[in-house]
Structure formats: C-alpha cells, structure tokens
Amino acid sequence: MAEQTNSSLDGARWGRIGRNLAIGLAVLCVATIAATLRLAPGDGAFMYALDDPYIHLAVAEEILNGGYGVNAGEASAASSSPLYPVLLAGLLKLGLGSWGPLVLNLAATAAALALAVATWAQSGLRAPRAAEGRLTAIGLVFLLALNVVGLAFTGMEHSLQTALGLAALLGAVRFSRSGRVEAWWILILAGQTLVRYEGLAIAVAGAVLLVVHRRWLSALIAVSGAAAVLVGFGAFLLSRGLPPAPSSVLVKGGDLAAAQGLGGRLGALVEHALSNMGDQAGLVFLAFVIGFAVVALGKPAPAGASNAAADPDARRLARDIALFAGLVVAAHLAVGRFGWWQRYETYALILAMTALPIAFPARFRALAAGRDWGAVTIALLFSAMAFQRNVSTTLESAPASQNVYLQQYQMHRFAADYLRAPVAVNDLGWVSFENPAYVLDLWGLGSEQARMARAGASGPGWMDDLARAKGVKVAMVYESWFAALPPGWVRMGTLELRVGLRSVADHRVAFYLVDPAAGPQAARDLDAWAATLPKRAVWVPDPAFPTPLHPKAGAAASP
C-alpha cells in the first residue's frame, strides 16, 4: 500500500496524541511531587524548587489583609506580576496555603498542553496515518526538553504565562485560516501583561499580524489593552506611594534600567541582546528568529506548482505563524532574560516549538513519516544538547526543593516560631510568608526604603540605620552578596547546607545579632531551634557569640 502522506491528522487522532502526552505529563508531575515530599517534608507545607513563590504568597496574605506588600502597613511591589498574587490570595482564602501555586501551575500546565494539541489540530497539519505513535514519542521527549514540568514546580507565574501565550498562538492560527477576528483572541492578547510584562511582546506580535491583514482597529484594541494593564498597574503602585514599576523590575533591570538618554539606552539594549545571543538558550532563540524570518519573508510558491507548498491557504498560515512566533522570540532575545532555573525564556521557547511544525509543514511531514532517520537522529541529538539545561532543571526540581527546605524554610522556622521578632534578610520568600513579624528585605524587593538606600549607598551604614529603625533583632544574610556588613553587628553563626547546591545562592547563611539587648533571648532561641534542624542542615555557632549550649564560645574568641 502506498503511504498516505497527505492524510490530515484528524481531530480524533490528535485527541489520542494529546491523551497520551497528558498521561506522560501526569506521571512526571506525580513522580516529582512524591520525590519532593520525600526530600522536603515541610510539615504540611509544600516546598518549591525556588524560594521566590513564597514572596508572591506573602503578598497574597497582605492582599487579604487589605494591603499590598510583604509587611503589614508598609506598601512594596515585591511581585512583578499584577495578577498572580491576586489569584494566590483567592487560593489562600480557600485554605490551600503553600499548595496554592502548585494547584494553579498544574492546571495551567494541563491547559498549555491542551492548547498546543488544539493548535496543531486546528492548523490542519498533514502526516501519514501511522504517525500517531511517532509523534507521541517525540512529544514525550519534548515534555522534558522544554522544562514543562520543572516550570510548574518553581511555583512562579511562568506556567500561566506559557498557557496564555499558547492561547494567543491558537487564536493566530484560527484567524489566519478563517480570516475572522474572534473577540476571545483579542481579549487574550490584551490580557497578556496581566501575568508578566513580557506578555507585551505577544500582544504586539498579534497586533502586527492583524495589521498585515489590515485589521487596524483590532490591532489597536489588542495593544491598547495590554498597555492599559501596565499603565493601570503603575497607577496603582503610585497610589501606594511606590514607583510605577515593581521592585523586581527596578532591582533586576540592570543596565537597561540604569542607562541614561536615548543613546545610552540603545547601547545598553544592544549590549544586552549580544549577551543573550552568547547564552546557550540565546543561540537556540537566534536560530528560531532566522528560521521564522525565512518563512515569514519568503516568496510565494510559483504559479502552477503542484506540491503542497503551492496551497495558498497553507502558505499563508505558515507565513502568519512564522511572523507571530518570530516576533515573540526576537523580542525576548532582545530584551528578555535567560537562565536562573530556565524560567524566564520558557514561555517563548514553548510557543516557538509549538509554532515550528506549522511554519515548516513539509519538515513536519518528513519527521512524522520517519523518513531519513539519520537526519531525525541528528535533529534529536541537537535538541538534547540545545535543551540540556531544561532537562536538568526538570530532573532536579525535587532536589532543589530540598535546598529550599533545608535553608529558607529553616530560616522561616527560626524567625516565625522561635525569635518571633523583626528580622532582616536578603532572600525574602519563606521568611516573610506565614510570619506576622516584620521582615526587612535588605536586597530591596520587599522594601522600597531598602531598595533606594542600597542603590545610593557608599557603605553598609544604611543597613544598620534601617534595621534599627524597623526594630530588627537578627539579620540572616548571604555574606557573599555584600562587600561589607555593619561593624556593630555580632556574628552568631551560620546555617550550612550539607547537600549539593541547586537553586539557592550559597551554602551558608550567616546570622547576625543587630540589637545587643536581644542577645540573651536570641541565644536561647538559637539553641532551641538548632536542636530541631533536619539532617544536612547544620548550625555552626560562631566563637564570638556564646549560647547556653555553647557557653565557652565567647571566651574562646577572647585574647
């Protein structure tokens, strides 16, 4: 029998592929949850691969209390997402506690998979009838290669961002095929910035596609809606006495935020883009940009051609989707960030990989048909190398959660369950969540005063002044993050990890006594807390700070 290479993969077959991928995804998620609970038994609290989601949870707590920030009565913009803390506040209200981000992320991950399969099905991709198993196997490989599971277990808003991006891609496919502008698609484009600021790139990409097809009003509505979200969020922050951008954007913006004048900003942008292109993932993005540009700017098939490329509808769809996806990837390559648990770029990477078979249908048919397995093997090996960091991130999600459990969660326990007084930190998340006492963020994400003081400081004096003004008793910091600490602070000891370092910045957190009057109580609290530490989290007392269990420590340090 002749191979039916022009048979469309109908809805039922795509449905079976989606079901098989969903089963594979569920197995990976359940295995990761089980491994996390074994390695990081948080007394009913779920541990994420990063400490950052607990910042969102702390903001969500304060939203429920009528404020906005991480400390009662003090506004701060510790979250860079307008919507995510609000959603978590609703889940906190339902009693989900620290499990809320996981529930939300798993739902968003399932939605993203369903949207990707729907996008392929509605694009009319053609392949041999026997391609179902082959495509399922390739899809399972890319569940690992695209960091789909690892992203969910960061506890951050990126899984939701990914699902919204794929919804926008599905809308672009439907628009290209039907020529109709559907209201839901415009709403999806306009709502991209509700989750993260990078969503503006997706809204602009959709607007450019609409302009190409002369849908001017729809394009204007999409971009205006996305911009209005940012303006509205900025106005909200201003109303709270804060700058119009979140602290994380101002703190992490680096040279792009600090550059002065048009020339300086353009220079910083070029330098940032070149730096991104030198990154392993940045090179993959550059290849995407070039490939999508070739399709989007390519010439139409010659008149009279008889192959599939001559189909004007298929050709238009390929060019439209290449334009849409290429703009998103190019925007992230120019101004986005890469790395740190591969969470920043994954939304654009998954969108590009979903768009790839639509932009290159002939290549997709060849891959699905299993022709030239040598080329297929080379392509898969290249993909494995290109996405190696994503595979590692997924597989290390549970060990990374153990890092958070042994370090930030134990810091939280000391602050909230033993000291029960104001503390200062430079890693904000767990210490601030479910802790009614004041937490001073010396890095500036959760404290606008600290952010401004650190930006203009010439020495460590501002830390001591601000800590004493806030009534801080103890500071818990990474010493490697600071050139100097206030000389009046007394080093009490260090909390040390005795496991491999994954997602935390340092093996050691140094504890400093800020308020001398709190010394006797802090010493007793340290001894009580240290006795309850799990294995592989070790308290190492400093010789300069005696405690009831180490009464000779101070004498040992004396001349």
What level of helicity do the residues show? 55-70%
Number of distinct helices: 26
Query: C-alpha Rg, in Å?
Result: 26 Å
Task: Report low-confidence residues grouped into runs of 5 or more.
Answer: 1-6, 301-308, 554-559
Estimate the global geometry from the Cα principal axes: globular
What count of structural domains? 2
- Biggest pleated-sheet summary: 6 strands, mixed
Got a strand count? 6
- The overall pLDDT average reads 89
Strand order of the largest sheet: 2-1-3-5-4-6
* N-end to C-end Cα span: 93 Å
* Category from helices, strands and their pairing: mainly alpha
Beta-strand residue percentage:
5-15%
Characterization of the model:
With 559 residues, the protein is mainly alpha-helical. It has 2 domains: 11-398, no CATH class; 407-557, no CATH class. Helices cover 60% and strands 5% of the residues. The chain has 26 helices and 6 strands. The protein has a 6-stranded mixed sheet, covered by helices on one side. Helix 4 (100-122) runs parallel beside helix 7 (158-178), helix 7 packs antiparallel against helix 15 (312-335) and helix 7 packs parallel to helix 16. The model is unreliable at 1-6, 301-308 and 554-559 (pLDDT under 50).
